[in-house]
Amino acid sequence: MKLFHVLQERFGFTRNETTVLLFLCVTLTAGSGLRWYRNVHAAPPAPLSSYDYAIADSQFAALSRPAPADSGHAPSGGGRTRRHAPADTLRPFGINLNQADTTTLVKLPGIGPALAREIVRQRTEHGPFESVDDLLEVKGIGPKKLQKIRPYVAVD
Hints:
By secondary structure, this protein is an all-alpha fold. It has 6 helices and 2 strands; from the N terminus they run αααβαααβ.
């Protein structure tokens, strides 16, 4: 209680101002003590795991090399390479739908690995295709996509 009187007389604080000032001092002291305690008794930080970037760097370097001119993969806009072989490298009616595997079907324009698997699945479950138009029954192939691939496929 003596402290209250000293602060009031020396600085001209009211009783409420003195109470608030002492509360703030006690809170600051307790917070500093807690921070010190946590720093002293905290577990040391785990060392950062080292990551070997050599594999990622070699993959990046391999993908960054320009493709040979005769590979059929001409760079397109934005520095990207084409995902599939361009349609002009395919022979007209060169792919037999009833014999082609997924790697062959992926060469068709607009046909990715998933759609190629779907074509093979359709052929396996429902028998061989009787005409190129039977591709419309494959989920993911519509009239526009069929028109893109029609010049390159045939049915035996």
